[in-house]
Write the structure tokens for this entry.
Amino acid sequence: MLLAQHSGTIPGLFVVVQKNTLFTMPETVEDKTDPELYLPHPGVCGMTLLNREAFKRTLVVPALKVRKEIVHRVLKSLKQSVLQRPGLKRVVEHPEDEDSRFVILDPHKVPDFSLGESEQQVLKELSVPAEVCRYQLELGYENFKSEEILRAVLPQGQEVTSGFSRVGHIAHLNLRDHQLPYRHLIGQVIMDKNPGVTCVVNKTNIIDSTYRNFEMEVLAGESNLVTKVKENNIAYELDFSKVYWNPRLSTEHGRIVALLRPGDVLFDVFAGVGPFAIPAAKRRCRVFANDLNPDSYSWLLHNCRLNKVHSQVKAFNMDGRAFLRGPVREELSKELPLLGEEHQTAFHIVMNLPALAVEFLDVFRHLLVGEPCSPAGLPTVHCYGFSKHRDPARDIQERAEAVLGTSLAGRCSAFLVRNVAPSKEMLCLSFQVPADVLYKRPCPEEAKPASKRLCTSQDCSEEKALS
């Protein structure tokens, strides 16, 4: 709704423009420009059940009367001064002059309803009178941003969270305790203000370290949590309530995949639904992907078929240690001895389980038996971890060294992936597994010619016991 007072025309009254009908009303609206000008009606504070009608607020804003044929030129010339609000028309019809329009200006940019010299000069060149009208403008729920709505609803001084992770049609929130009484209202506002979001959920517990999923509550919208996402031009489908997916890791996924060359081999120990494995297969790498979570394993297979890389990815549903000691050891034992001086194949092992991955590094100690391959052929590990240390790179390196039983000084790099929380970082430690860690030298051959074979670890133990 717009109400206009033409200077010197109708003192104390406003002309109301509503469905082309004119009537008059007393001037009882706000006429000030302050930082709180665009906040909803103060009466919504403390609201827990969304009432969109309660957000209406009426205020006075400056406006210009402009001939309709030059409206576009005026908008272009005064774009910094024109009012910009969600869902608000910047140009409205004139109630008495069909050849003219009203251009609504921003009170913060046009204080005291007076244009600056530069704006007046622009209008003079366009033959537009610089006389500013006063318009009574009604703002509604649709004209406020989500941050403004939530700031008005939550008690003063409480933190407002309007950020969320977008997973297909799902908005994922991580609300704090003081926001929980308002959670359903917050969910509805997020859904209203973000086209394409049809479901809003809130995490209700921490991530389970076993299957990397968490319990969640649907705050607004449908309860369908099977969704489709696109990351780095690759499509994935998943059930967000049963598998792990974090859209904030898309850059990291791309960074690691960019290190791979066609023909390389990738072992993904905690593969999830395939954000490392599938793009690696798209780069014509051979991929061995594993996840303990049966649902993640099922969606991994589904996404491999969806992206037509199922023939390049061998998928496993195993514990991470069993995967490293089984398929990974078997493949490395077979491939590494075949590498020549001019080898072309590189082996990468991705361990993206930040809460626990460092603890799995002990598996590499004497994982292989025999003579070490050339140093260039040693597999590269990309191990993820969290750190609250003030020197997180040093912290994750020292923890890895303690588990591996060797120094990585000068042989590793730590990459800061993202800030997870205040004083908590997620990092990726990359290093080639040192030969003295990876390989166990074979036991001496027995004297008898008939026993020409490598001893197993059990044989070695028995030999030591007898000596």
